[in-house]
Known about the structure:
Number of helices: 1
Largest sheet: 6 strands, antiparallel
Amino acid sequence: MTAKLILSLNGTVLKEYPLNKERISIGRKPTNDIAIDNLAVSGEHALVETFQSDSFLEDLNSTNGVIVNGVEIKRHFLQHNDVIEIGRHTLVYINEQQVPSNNMEKTVLVRSSPRMAKAMAEESADVASPRTMRGDEGSASAPQFQHNETQLVSVQQSAVVQVLNGPRFGKKLPLTKTLTTLGKPGVQVAVIARRPHGFFITHVEGEKFPLLNGQSLNDQPHLLHDHDVIELAGVKMEFYFEDGEA
Length: 246
């Protein structure tokens, strides 16, 4: 069954929109896939991108913002029954294919959005610099760091993240796409962008920033190094290059 958005105003359902193509635009202009004729809605307000059974909502720098489940968002992975507020109108996301899960240990791997991948890759292009963050090498949960602090990697190198705890312990996620999304939608999400000069992690969603080697990230992309440990949504993962695995 195709996922859909149900548009309503003041509790009255106006129309249902199946998410039957990769990009669905939302805005006041009549050229949008979901056109909402209201002055509180920007001409090009938001975008929903769908890949197989997963949908991703992005605010297109609108004037009045996008609210999901009472929280203003910039980027959000949609979950069944999410309530989206745009101006005075409401959109409810329905996706009965999704399997509800309360497992905080779950790691979600979502297909990368070409548009989002380009934006994230551009953000990371200017931040290639020696790492300033270190893990606690005396910690039992942190690996020993033996990489060159100033060395940048080649895009030809293959990298993976491997889950270090929980029911998915040992699972490996190859970082083969331009953008790989990790985390639990609605809780904490980060993306890893593959660039010619390395792999960069950036916080996307959640009140708390992910941890890198035990230290909190900020909203800027961070260059990843061999055997860095990432922690988000209660899951620890090790980043490493396959040809550099011990």
